[in-house]
């Protein structure tokens, strides 16, 4: 590839000697022999020398004039005589070797090409040659036949070395006109190849010229020493500094219709494609200042201050010490009738009596139905795929991912190993200083010690030798095969090069340890030492695409040049792919990275991927093979780390399947922790349900409720499994989050109801005329409506939450809603039945569990529980005292204001390391990835043209997509991507796009050595002829096309040649061939008119296509979702440009795709999704509460208000405790809404349905009657279980479950048991109740 780019620069510099700089003199004329220092043939006919000639320039023949007009048009003036210092042979060589660079440069930037030729044309043919070119060394040797003149048998004088005098200005202007010309296939500029080891990043005018003139580059026929000056004055040796006019790249050169486009010449840009990132628009609403302080905090501080003052004033002036509930207390069993409450109460009273009279029947029927529903579990399907969990099938990112996977191919599977050097002086692994061949000082990191590098190579070789077994079907038999990495790896240049695509720093030495140890003699004695592997490394990081012929420092002596830098698989490996730790901490990617400071090697093993949803046998088997190898890879790495890893090496590794595998292991790994958590809650429930009087064994056994408590817990689990069974039969896949969260949720709700039901019965006094069944019915009629209120509210809340588009949230909501509903039904059926049996046991003084043993009568006398007595005699009076009440209001008001100030600042996202267990190898990899990965993920800009609305054979349509071709629009697809990458810190785009269209048009017109085209047919056919075949083939295009800068293939030529472009591998003679870079980027559709003629290639049109670029380095969740947001902004702009002036039916879509988008899209709308989900839950709670409380607007509003306060305070906890907002915390917030109902509804309903002399007294009785049950039923039950979660191995458990659950319980309890009673004492329903309650 590079040989042709350079040979035209050197093989045509035909020099003749000169002694003095006389006017009109030559220093050479014609080519007449080989440089014998490189052998009889001049080193594979590279080092030919020019005839020494010091006479005047010779008149040009007609043939020479025509060649000059084609090759060096600036030297020809119509009507003037033309004298030249170059022969026809020299001009023919110039024409031949201009072929490839002409196609590479001229098509993209004709002005650069025009300027570029001046340098070599003037030096080769100018009739004033001796003024600026000096002969330094003349040799004698045998002549040869050059095809035009025969010097065979003659001893001729030839020029071996020259000095070329040019001005600094000329070199700089020429460099500036060419330095930005793009090379789309590598997302870099043409200097990537034309500046030798310096590459595009380190290339300067002098370095460029010096490289072009160095014989060490492997192509220059002789040495050209450039001497520069800052102006065009005469040198001290009386030579002029040559300074021809250089046309600016944006201007049109003679003979062309346009100058260089924007992508190849920034000066030509109008600015229309440059994005404007207004950071003010990106600021959130709360990000403002007032008086130099945080604005939102100041506002909430003022709200709190003013609100507190107003409240205190209101309390003093307007609120009496006693607030009567009614002006005239009602007398009788019913103070006020509410049809809804009355109907509900009558129903549950009847049902309680029925269940108490027929407990066995109710138990058998309810349990039979529940166990029957559980049988559906056998059809349960569990989803562990993160994409299936968190990305809705209808979400934009999911739809776009599926399109990309189907139209092109799924993104590669990648296994990564980060190999870090631990400094160890005793092992020789430490930093060291080094001076390169140019005298620059470097401090190399410890990883550059040969011992470390060789160990890293051994590890790679062992990985390549990993084998796995896979069963293949052969005929009617199943045969087990043993495969290695070569069976499943990606080989971009296959079949010509079948090496696996492994990116590693060792690529610069072709994975060959012997090359690391070689030393090479420098071309200059000034270096003072041999060149080593470190010199080669420095060359390769500057120009990773350097081929062996370009490598000027490592001549292997085999006639093929040096080592070069290309990997074994045939492509360049950029240093930021494979090196880590060179970016200074706390900074972005530096403009001039010091790769010598690298601390780690990043080894990337690229494996072919397949669509997991495909039913094609090749896809299914391909994916199975890849996953089988990855499993063996992980096993090998774990063993290597454990048994073989040297002490001076540390590694982190992962495979494509590792995250999903570790998520599975994490769930099962914390089963013990979850089990202990539930066991603690179970033990507490079974013990605390009892009402113990005297501390005796007999009394304990009679009064205990172990059987009832265990049955209550069993009902919870039965409800969960019944819910799972229902949805398993319905085909709704479950997620692991269901098993982790729903039992906790149902326990919170169900146990609270159990405590209220049992404790209300225990405290109730049987009326004189009541039977036992009637007492149970009355208690159930009193308590069940409150249970219905909480359960139905929460179930409806969760069922509506299933409207969420996020699969995990939707599944959780459906399963949770059904589990809560079933749990309530089981409580009012089987639990009520068992409770009636248990109460009969207790009345008969029989022991719990051992029900055949009877105790004494005195042991069964009930007493008030300790917690109840605390609430009655201490807590309630203190809470509702004169000065505590306003203090509580102000305190909670302050908490709400301070919470509102920080809630909008809750972070969004889920850092990957939080999802892994503490002992996971993937967790270590995530940590290393943030520290050592130095490249962002690739992003594909996809043009969806499946309907064929864009005819890509049309040049006007091509101009909407291309980058640097003549006529490309500045705001084209590739043009806009290129403009955005100029602002990487804001656009998150780091590189120019890999543009297949530019390379295709360039390739189809490329002429290589000996006028052989890259695109050729066999004679008299339309079948493709490979470029290595020299005879019997013709170009795909008419001869006139190769000399026409504005030429584009017509529709017929495009359809015939596009597939050939995608099938041909790039090489030395056809570097623009598209197989390696674009084979998977262009989706072709065969034309119906194409024939099956064996003498013709098939014809195709381009349907969909993509252009790849790279994101900047992304480290945090915010980086990832902001990069997605920016990419969509970019493609929206591109889509608008392409669809301008098109009808709706003709419009196409452009979208960005990267492998991480499907995971991070949710964060773009996380606040919106959260507010919608929570909002639906809150509205549901309000409506259901309003209806079930007999259209009591005030009570429903109070419940809603308290729940909102709980959520606000929970949000503040998330901010202060670093709990980010994501799908997991969203599920927890929805659950928090449900649990919060339990903290509020029972106390509020009791207040609303019971009448006392005033609000304070009513609030006191409400908190005494219901508060102790709420505290014991929810708060204390969960507290012990939650504490155990703090010891879970998984960060996701400790952060999102332990912290949030603890917050839900504590904040909910504080609002339900402290704030709510005080609030009710101020603004509770004016007419406090329907029932007159007996004095307590």
Mean pLDDT: 83
Characterize the main sheet. 5 strands, mixed
Number of DSSP helical runs: 44
Radius of gyration: 41 Å
Percent strand: 5-15%
Low-pLDDT segments, ≥5 res = 1-22, 321-337, 1328-1336
Regarding quaternary structure, how should these chains be classified? single chain
Number of strands: 30
Q: What is the approximate shape?
A: elongated
SS-based structural class? alpha+beta
Q: How much helix, percentage-wise, in residues?
A: 40-55%
Head-to-tail CA distance between termini: 98 Å
Word description of this protein:
- The chain is of the alpha+beta class and about 1350 residues long.
- The protein has 44 helices and 30 strands.
- The strands form 11 sheets. Strands 1, 2, 5, 6 and 9 form a 5-stranded mixed sheet that branches. Strands 13, 18, 19, 20 and 21 form a 5-stranded antiparallel sheet that branches. A 4-stranded antiparallel sheet has the order 26-27-23-28, sandwiched between helices.
- The N and C termini lie far apart (about 100 Å).
Question: What secondary-structure arrangement, pairings included, does this model have?
Answer:
Elements: H1 2-10, E1 28-34, H2 42-45, E2 48-52, E3 58-59, H3 62-71, E4 83-84, H4 88-97, H5 99-106, H6 110-125, E5 133-142, E6 155-167, H7 168-178, E7 182-183, E8 188-189, H8 191-194, H9 199-202, H10 205-213, E9 223-229, H11 279-282, E10 289-290, E11 293-294, H12 295-317, H13 339-357, H14 359-374, E12 382-383, H15 386-390, H16 396-407, E13 413-421, E14 432-435, E15 441-444, H17 450-464, E16 468-474, E17 477-483, E18 502-503, H18 513-517, H19 533-542, H20 575-578, E19 579-580, E20 600-607, H21 617-643, E21 649-654, H22 658-669, H23 671-688, H24 697-703, H25 706-729, E22 734-735, H26 736-763, H27 772-801, H28 807-843, H29 866-879, H30 884-902, H31 921-932, E23 938-944, H32 955-958, H33 973-980, H34 984-987, H35 996-1004, E24 1016-1018, E25 1033-1035, H36 1051-1063, H37 1075-1078, E26 1082-1086, E27 1100-1110, H38 1117-1138, E28 1149-1153, H39 1157-1160, H40 1166-1188, H41 1193-1216, H42 1223-1249, E29 1250-1251, H43 1255-1285, H44 1291-1323, E30 1331-1332
Parallel strand pairs: 6-9, 12-22, 29-30
Antiparallel strand pairs: 1-2, 2-6, 3-4, 5-6, 7-8, 10-11, 13-20, 13-21, 14-15, 16-17, 18-20, 19-20, 23-27, 23-28, 24-25, 26-27
Helix pairs in contact: 1-4, 3-4, 7-10, 12-30, 13-27, 13-28, 14-25, 14-28, 23-25, 23-43, 25-26, 25-28, 26-27, 26-28, 26-42, 26-43, 27-28, 27-40, 27-42, 28-42, 29-43, 30-41, 30-44, 33-38, 40-41, 40-42, 41-42, 41-44, 42-43, 42-44, 43-44
């Amino acid at each position: 590839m590079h040989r042709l780019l350079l040979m035209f620069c050197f093989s045509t510099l035909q020099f003749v000697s000169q002694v003095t700089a006389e006017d009109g003199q030559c220093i050479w004329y014609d080519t007449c022999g080989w440089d014998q220092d490189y052998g009889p043939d001049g080193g594979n006919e590279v080092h030919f020398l020019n005839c020494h000639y010091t006479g005047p320039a010779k008149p040009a023949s007609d043939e020479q004039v025509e060649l000059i007009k084609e090759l060096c048009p600036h030297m020809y003036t119509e009507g003037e005589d033309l004298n030249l210092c170059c022969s026809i042979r020299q001009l023919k060589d110039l024409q031949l070797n201009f072929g490839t660079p002409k196609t590479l440069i001229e098509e993209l930037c004709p002005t650069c090409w025009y300027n570029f030729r001046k340098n070599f044309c003037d030096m080769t043919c100018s009739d004033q040659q001796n003024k600026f070119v000096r002969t330094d060394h003349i040799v004698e040797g045998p002549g040869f036949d050059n095809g035009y003149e025969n010097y065979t048998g003659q001893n001729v004088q030839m020029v071996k070395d020259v000095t070329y005098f040019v001005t600094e200005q000329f070199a700089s202007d020429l460099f500036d006109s060419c330095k930005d010309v793009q090379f789309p296939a590598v997302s870099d500029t043409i200097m990537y190849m034309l500046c030798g080891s310096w590459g595009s990043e380190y290339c300067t005018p002098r370095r460029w010229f010096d490289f072009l003139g160095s014989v060490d580059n492997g192509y220059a026929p002789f040495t050209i020493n450039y001497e520069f000056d800052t102006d065009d004055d005469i040198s001290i040796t009386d030579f002029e500094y040559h300074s021809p006019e250089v046309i600016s790249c944006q201007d049109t050169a003679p003979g062309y219709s346009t100058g260089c486009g924007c992508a190849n010449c920034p000066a030509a840009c109008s600015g229309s494609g440059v994005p404007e990132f207004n950071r003010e628009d990106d600021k959130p609403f709360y990000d403002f200042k007032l008086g130099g302080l945080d604005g939102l905090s100041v506002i909430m501080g003022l709200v709190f201050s003013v609100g507190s003052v107003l409240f205190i004033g209101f309390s003093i002036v307007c609120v009496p010490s006693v607030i009567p509930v009614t002006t005239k207390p009602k007398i009788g069993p019913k103070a006020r009738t509410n049809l809804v409450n009355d109907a509900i109460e009558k129903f549950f009273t009847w049902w309680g009596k029925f269940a108490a009279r027929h407990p066995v029947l109710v138990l058998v029927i309810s349990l039979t139905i529940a166990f029957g529903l559980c049988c559906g579990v056998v059809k349960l399907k569990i989803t562990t795929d993160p994409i299936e969990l968190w990305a809705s099938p209808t979400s934009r990112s999911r739809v776009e991912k599926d399109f990309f996977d189907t139209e092109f191919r799924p993104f590669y599977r990648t296994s990564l190993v980060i190999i870090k050097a631990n400094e160890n002086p005793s092992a020789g692994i430490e930093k060291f200083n080094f001076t390169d061949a140019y005298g620059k000082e470097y401090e190399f990191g410890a990883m550059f010690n040969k011992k470390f590098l060789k160990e890293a190579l051994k590890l790679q070789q062992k990985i390549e030798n990993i084998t796995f077994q896979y069963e293949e079907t052969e005929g009617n038999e199943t045969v087990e095969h043993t495969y290695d990495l070569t069976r499943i790896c990606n080989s971009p240049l296959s079949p010509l090069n079948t090496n696996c695509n492994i990116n590693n720093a060792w690529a610069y030495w072709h994975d060959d340890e012997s090359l690391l140890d070689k030393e090479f003699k420098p071309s200059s004695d000034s270096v003072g030492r041999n060149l080593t592997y470190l010199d080669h490394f420095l060359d390769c990081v500057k120009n990773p695409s350097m081929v062996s012929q370009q490598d000027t420092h490592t001549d292997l002596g085999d006639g093929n040049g040096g080592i070069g830098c290309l990997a074994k698989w045939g492509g360049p490996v950029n240093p930021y792919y494979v090196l880590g730790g060179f970016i200074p901490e706390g900074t972005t990617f530096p403009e001039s990275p010091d790769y010598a400071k690298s601390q780690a090697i990043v080894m990337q093993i690229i494996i072919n991927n397949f669509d997991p949803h495909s039913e094609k046998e090749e896809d299914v088997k391909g994916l199975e093979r890849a996953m089988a190898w990855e499993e063996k890879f992980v096993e090998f790495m774990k063993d290597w780390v454990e048994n073989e890893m040297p002490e001076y090496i540390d590694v982190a590794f992962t495979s494509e399947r590792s995250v999903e595998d570790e998520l599975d292991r994490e769930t099962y790994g914390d089963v013990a922790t979850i089990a202990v958590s539930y066991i603690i809650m179970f033990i507490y429930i079974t013990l605390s349900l009892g009402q113990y009087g005297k501390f005796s064994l007999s009394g304990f056994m009679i009064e205990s409720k172990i059987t009832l408590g265990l049955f209550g817990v069993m009902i919870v689990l039965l409800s969960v499994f019944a819910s799972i069974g229902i949805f398993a039969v319905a085909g709704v896949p479950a997620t692991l989050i269901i098993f982790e969260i729903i039992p906790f949720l149902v326990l919170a709700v169900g146990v609270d109801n159990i405590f209220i039901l049992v404790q209300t019965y225990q405290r109730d006094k049987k009326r004189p005329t009541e039977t036992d069944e009637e007492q149970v019915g009355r208690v159930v009629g009193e308590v069940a409506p409150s249970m219905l209120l909480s359960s139905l509210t929460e179930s409806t809340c969760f069922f509506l939450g299933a409207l969420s588009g996020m699969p995990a949230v939707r599944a959780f909501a459906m399963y949770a809603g059904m589990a809560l509903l079933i749990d309530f039904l089981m409580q009012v059926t089987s639990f009520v039945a068992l409770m009636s049996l248990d109460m009969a046991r207790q009345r008969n003084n029989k022991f719990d569990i051992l029900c055949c043993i009877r105790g004494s009568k005195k042991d069964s006398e009930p007493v008030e529980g300790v917690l109840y007595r605390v609430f009655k005699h201490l807590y309630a009076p203190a809470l509702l005292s004169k000065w505590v009440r306003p203090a509580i209001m102000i305190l909670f008001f302050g908490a709400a204001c301070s919470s509102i100030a920080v809630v909008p600042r809750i972070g969004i996202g889920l850092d990957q390391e939080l999802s892994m267990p503490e002992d996971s190898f993937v967790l270590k990899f995530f940590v290393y990835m943030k520290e050592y990965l130095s490249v962002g993920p690739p992003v594909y800009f996809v043009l969806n043209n499946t309907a064929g609305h864009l005819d890509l054979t049309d040049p006007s349509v091509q101009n909407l997509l291309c980058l640097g071709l003549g006529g490309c629009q500045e705001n084209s697809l590739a043009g806009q991507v290129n403009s955005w990458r100029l602002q990487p810190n804001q656009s998150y785009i780091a590189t120019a796009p890999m543009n297949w269209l530019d390379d295709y048009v360039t390739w189809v017109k490329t002429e290589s050595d000996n006028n052989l085209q890259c695109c050729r047919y066999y004679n008299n056919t339309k079948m493709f002829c490979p470029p290595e075949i020299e005879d019997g083939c013709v170009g795909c295009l008419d001869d006139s096309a190769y000399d026409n800068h504005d030429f584009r293939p017509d529709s017929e030529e495009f359809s015939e040649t596009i597939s050939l472009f995608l099938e041909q591998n790039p090489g030395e003679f056809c570097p623009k061939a598209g197989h390696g870079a674009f084979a998977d980027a262009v989706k072709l559709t065969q034309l119906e008119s194409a024939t099956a003629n064996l003498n013709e290639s098939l014809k195709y049109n381009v349907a969909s296509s993509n252009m790849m670029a790279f994101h900047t380095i992304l480290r945090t969740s915010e980086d990832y979702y902001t990069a997605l947001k920016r990419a969509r902004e970019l493609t929206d702009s591109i889509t608008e440009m392409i669809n301008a002036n098109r009808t709706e039916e003709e419009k196409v879509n452009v979208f960005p795709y990267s492998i991480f988008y499907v995971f991070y899209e949710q964060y773009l709308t996380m606040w919106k999704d959260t507010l919608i989900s929570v909002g639906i839950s809150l509205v549901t709670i309000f409506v259901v509460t309003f209806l079930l409380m007999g259209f009591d607007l005030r009570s429903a509003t109070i419940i809603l208000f308290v729940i909102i306060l709980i959520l606000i305070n929970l949000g503040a906890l998330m901010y202060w405790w670093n709990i980010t907002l994501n799908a997991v915390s969203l599920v927890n917030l929805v659950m928090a809404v449900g649990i919060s109902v339990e903290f509020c509804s029972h106390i509020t309903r009791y207040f609303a349905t019971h009448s006392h002399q005033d609000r304070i007294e009513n609030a006191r009785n409400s908190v005494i009657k219901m508060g102790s049950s709420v505290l014991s039923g929810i708060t204390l039950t969960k507290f012990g279980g939650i504490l155990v979660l703090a010891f879970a191995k998984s960060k996701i458990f400790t952060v999102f479950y332990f912290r949030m659950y603890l917050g839900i319980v504590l904040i909910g309890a504080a609002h339900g048991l402290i704030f709510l009673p005080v609030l009710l004492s101020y603004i509770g329903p004016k007419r406090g109740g329907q029932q007159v309650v007996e004095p307590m």
